[in-house]
């Protein structure tokens, strides 16, 4: 348990111009199982998720990648799991951080808040699971 | 090859002491005193802050040469490297090379994958003993 109640790295986001190709590269060559693919509601961004230990790798890319373009990816951001997102947001705001209000995450029942400053150049967010009531549809994990 | 776990995430920073102090004071992480320090061969100094079953590795370039310095020059601070634990780093390197990946020779249980083979993502393979 840490000062903001962070328990582990929840997500590492790998952003690219073609998330399907990058996820397939990791699956085929590194033996990382892709557990879920989806389009992000609202933006249509193509997402693929894998899990290694307690960390989710999120491959994110545009809705309609250019199949002719050279595929380029980069480590983009990180999400820490916290036990109490409201308390964590309040603590960070009290320290002068610019943090969004918690909002529903892609993960059912989870809330996420983005830390918009002071993280050493790393896009950074907090997530709390089981924060809001939800049903668990088949195939929803992670 | 089977990837087991995210061992650590490497984050390039301009000032190691300031970065780790910020993450300690504001996020509650703690520097592992048993690891880290200056690595002259790589032109860096680093510190590890455990979180869950992984670590954040903060890396400050000490020279203007090498991949860390190049990253800092081009992008400033940010996530630099993803370290993935494997059972057998030598076998993993052999496997990836057979697939056409450019991978450095293992050294002390660590091997680096050329980002040209992974769409630009810096990957490190690491073999932990007794974990």
Automatic annotation (TrEMBL), chain B:
Residues 5-131 form the VOC domain. Transmembrane segments: none annotated. Keywords: Metal-binding. The keyword Ribonucleoprotein does not apply. Pfam families: Glyoxalase_4 (PF13669). InterPro entries: Glyas_Bleomycin-R_OHBP_Dase, MMCE/EMCE_epimerase, VOC_core. This is Methylmalonyl-CoA epimerase. It comes from Tepidiforma bonchosmolovskayae.
